[in-house]
Every structure is written in C-alpha cells, then in structure tokens.
C-alpha cells in the first residue's frame, strides 16, 4: 500500500464535480492513489474555490473546455449526474484524456455505446463500487475453485422500488432510483455471474418486486427489490455452486462448508476439527488501519486504483470498463420494459 506522496509516477488529473459525494468519497480516496490533483471544475465556481485549498489544488474552473485548454492533464474524474456524463465523457475522451466516472454512466445504454465510439486508445472506467469491493472479489475467487464453483445461482436483496412506466422513464431520459442505486446490486451480480441472456421483471402494485436474470452460463439470479418506506434495511447477497456463500452488509463474507451429516442420525452440529462449518471474513474494528475504512470496504479505492493503474500502464480496463457498463445498462433497460415478460439481451 502506497500513499499519494510516495508514488514516483503519478497521473496529472482534474476533478469535475465537488458536490457532496465528490467531497466525501472521491477526493479523500485520492490520498491513496498515484495522482496529482491539478485542477477542479464545478458549475458552482465558489464551491470549487472553497474546496481547492483543502487539497492543495491551485486552479479552479467553471468550464471543462477552459480547464482542458489551460491545464496539462492526463486524466479526468467525473463526479456529476448520469444525465451529464455522456457529453462530459465524450468531450474528455476527444481531448485525449483518460476518464473515470461515477456510476451510473448514463441514462440510456445507447449513450454508453457513443462513449465507446469516442474512447479510442484511452482508458475509461465506471465506478461500480460493489463490483470492486473486497467482498465481491472474494466471492469471485471462491467460485473460481473446483471445490466451490462453478456458479449455479445467486440472489440479492436491496431496498428499492420499481418505476411503474418504464417506457416513459427511458423516453424522457429520467434517472430513477432503479438506475441511480439499482445499478449497484446489478453491477455486483454481473461481476460475479458474467453476461446476462434475458431479464424478467415482476412488479407489485406498491412498487416492490423481483428481477430475474438468466445468465449466459446457465446460472439464474433473483434480485429482490423491497420498498423500505424510507428506512435503512438489510442488504444481502447469496451465491451457490457446490457450497453456499453469502455477503451481508457488504462487509461480511461467509462460506458454508457444511458438516458430516446423516439424516436422523447426526447429533453434533459442531464436529471436531476446523475443516467443516462456516468460514467468515470481515473487517476488524479494533485498530485504526485501512481495511476497516469505508473507502476500502465499499470499493472506492479498488475502482479508482484500477483506473489509475490501467492509465499509467497503458492497459485496457477489465472490470468497470465501458463494455461492462453497457451490459449493466442493458439489464437495467430490460427490467424497465419487462412488465412481467421475458426480455432477451443482445
């Protein structure tokens, strides 16, 4: 682990958008990245100017065009609304810059396709943090083993309501919660399960429901969306191959290895030894270390570090690429249009 001040080679970057999320999460994560923050751009120039001194930034702009013209940048971090991402991303790519952008990348899948057309040889990564977080990477690692994989199915539980008229949402370029936050569990599910062949969404009159994902591998995923009426509820994921794996609260991974068992005869649920039962991974909160901080447990560091490493090394991004983002957006749109019907994904 290195800190910003310790890297010999760093990207010269600009940040677009220093609202609440950019200030709380994106800028603090840069303390651990191989970057030098050269400039900040925000439509509210006074907000940029109040933020800049805190992070040692000298230049502020209210226009990306001016920032790209005046500053010698390698990359830009976009932390704005999904409605604004497509135009800003294409502008930056056309200016020869590598682009990292917050999720969701756009409000329509076709807008991601346009970004791909403008990307050229630049690196572009979308910050789907739940696809990058340590818990997700552990599940992927476990399912890749012969002892546990391959994946047969998965489930997700997330507090969410489903828009009633999906066609209007798409036609009007709306950004409902099904997009802004629904893309989190969807990105996790696609990171683990791979390509999706078909989607079926069932919605009840109150807006709750289930989204069924048919993966190209043959695995089936159920994404359960439940309205919590403004309350913070449990978030949970389950995966099964030859064994069962669970992610609770995004930070606890449990592998159920089972016990020697014979129906009507086994009496001990805790047999001797350490090679049966459950294995649990989770952060420890007794020390002021890094693995228990939200910037690391939630995936912010990993997604942004992957972008920086790819840009510095001249390599194409894998997880979080525009192609991955396009897959997420196609599943999102299919869910909007399903109305209980099976929708095939190209």
Please sum up the structure shown.
This protein is α/β, with parallel strands linked by helices and 346 residues long.
Explain this structure to me?
The chain is 33% helix and 23% strand. With 346 residues, the protein is α/β, with parallel strands linked by helices. A hairpin with a 5-residue loop joins strand 8 (196-203) and strand 9 (209-215). Helix 5 runs antiparallel to helix 13. The model has no long low-confidence stretch (mean pLDDT 95).
Helical residues, percent: 25-40%
The strands making up the biggest β-sheet line up spatially as 14-13-12-11-7-10-9-8-15
Q: What can be said about the biggest beta sheet?
A: 9 strands, mixed
Strand content: 15-25%
Low-confidence stretches: none
Radius of gyration: 22 Å
Topology, number of strands: 15
Topology diagram in text:
Elements: E1 11-16, H1 20-29, E2 35-41, H2 45-51, E3 59-61, H3 64-70, E4 75-78, H4 85-94, E5 98-102, H5 109-119, E6 124-127, H6 129-132, H7 134-143, E7 153-159, H8 166-171, H9 177-180, H10 183-193, E8 196-203, E9 209-215, E10 220-226, E11 236-240, E12 244-248, E13 252-256, E14 278-281, H11 294-297, H12 300-313, H13 322-338, E15 342-344
Parallel strand pairs: 1-2, 1-4, 2-3, 4-5, 5-6, 7-10
Antiparallel strand pairs: 7-11, 8-9, 8-15, 9-10, 11-12, 12-13, 13-14
């Amino acid at each position: 682990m290195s800190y910003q001040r310790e890297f010999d080679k760093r990207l010269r970057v600009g940040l677009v958008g220093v609202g609440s999320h950019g200030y709380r999460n994106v800028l603090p994560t840069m303390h651990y990245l191989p970057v030098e923050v050269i400039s900040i751009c925000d439509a509210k120039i006074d907000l940029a100017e109040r933020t800049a001194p805190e992070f040692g930034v000298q230049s502020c702009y209210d226009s990306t065009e001016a920032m790209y013209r005046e500053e010698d940048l390698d990359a830009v971090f976009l932390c704005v609304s999904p409605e604004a991402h497509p135009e800003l991303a294409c502008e930056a790519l056309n200016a020869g810059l590598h682009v990292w952008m917050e999720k969701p990348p756009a409000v329509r899948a076709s807008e991601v396709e346009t970004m791909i057309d403008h990307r050229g040889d630049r690196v572009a990564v979308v910050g789907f943090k739940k696809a990058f977080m340590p818990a997700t990477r552990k599940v992927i690692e476990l399912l890749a083993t012969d002892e546990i994989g391959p994946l047969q199915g998965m489930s997700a539980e997330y507090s969410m309501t489903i828009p009633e008229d999906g066609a209007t949402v798409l036609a009007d370029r709306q950004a409902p919660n099904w997009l802004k936050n629904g893309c989190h569990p969807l990105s996790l599910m696609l990171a683990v399960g791979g390509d999706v062949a078909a989607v079926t969404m069932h919605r009840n009159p109150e807006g709750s429901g289930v989204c069924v994902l048919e993966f190209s591998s043959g695995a089936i995923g159920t994404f359960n969306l439940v309205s919590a009426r403004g309350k913070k509820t449990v978030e949970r994921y389950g995966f099964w191959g030859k064994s069962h794996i669970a992610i609770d609260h995004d930070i606890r991974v449990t592998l159920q290895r089972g016990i020697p068992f014979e129906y009507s005869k086994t009496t001990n649920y805790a047999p001797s030894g350490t090679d049966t039962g459950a294995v649990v991974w989770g952060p420890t909160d007794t020390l002021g270390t890094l693995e228990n901080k939200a910037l690391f447990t939630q995936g912010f560091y990993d997604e942004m570090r992957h972008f920086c490493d790819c840009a510095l090394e001249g390599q194409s991004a894998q997880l979080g690429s525009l192609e991955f983002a396009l897959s997420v957006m196609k599943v999102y749109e299919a869910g909007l249009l399903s109305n209980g019907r099976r929708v095939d994904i190209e």
